[in-house]
Task: structure prediction
Amino acid sequence: MISGFATSDGTKKFAQNSGVDRANFREFQNLLLSNVGVGTYLGDADARTDQMVTSAVKQSVMSGVNVIDTAINYRSQKAERSVGKAISELVEEKKISRDEVFLSSKNGYVTNDADISLGFWEYVKEEYSQKGVIKEGDVTSGYHCMTRSYLSDQLERSLKNLGIECLDLMYLHNAVEGQIKDVSKDQFMENLQSAFELYEQKRDEGKIRFYGMATWECFRVPKDSPQYLSLEDTVSMARKVGGEHHGFRFIQLPYNMHYDQALLAKHQYVEGSNVSILESAARLGIGVFTSVPFMQGRLLSSGVMPDFNNMKPPMRALQFIRSSPGVLAPLVGQKSPEHVSENMGIMKIPPMSEDEFLALVKRLTS
Result:
């Protein structure tokens, strides 16, 4: 198990040694984080994909990326293990130290283990039900569970899968989306507070540094939607649970040139003002990572995205997202060496200035 966590000095050292333009790092919570991160969502749960993910993570880190995102349910725990192998090899090869990279994972969905030859429900029964981790009624119709016993169990498994003693960021994974069909909003908020209390306890134990919410709908939909969640209320809850130095500091949501609600839809409220989720997060001191930059490849077809700056589609997609005010980094899924090389070309140029970005948005929306 590798000790340590991302630190101010470590991430600063990474940025200095990366050979990447300093403009491609953002400072947040005293950490220097690359403005593109690597994601590990898709792929078959097989050994070939394991090796591709491990190699892609290593190649990404050596290209100047120090933000790595995964989840325990991605490829039925094999994504975390592939990331863990990459980090272990990079550390053993003395290419990086643990304090230079920011690792995030997610828990909440019920998952099996692709390395154990049990069916899904057999695994759930043997690993969770019979051991008292979950009981009847804990799992929603969306295969989601956010009881303290389950989230605690999943954190321990994530740390073991990743081979680390401390995770930089643990997200509660699609909590509203996975729960709200089966529980009332009041009950959900009680459950959310309980989860935050657990995460604060795990911070005290040195097992996580920060926690957050990885989401799909809840921060982008209007207030009258059953899935709506106020970021301001969520931060207030974290403050109630953990005080001014609480660990709820990050969210993740889908954002790209097609899913533009995070930038353009003013569905959130801060101090009575209607604002977008990106502006809300900036005002409340919350860092935003974004998912699906390519919409799983659909945005990369010719003519789908508006053209600008004579860039190829992958570069265009990443440049738009990472130049958006309030975004720390898009998380890009990449496996083949060719795709990693193509995507990492973005690290050789700086993001657009705010004026350039606003001019582009004005042109695209006029």
Notes: The chain has one domain: 107-365. The chain has a mean pLDDT of 96. Residues 308 and 321 are 13 Å apart (CA to CA). The longest helix spans residues 185-204.
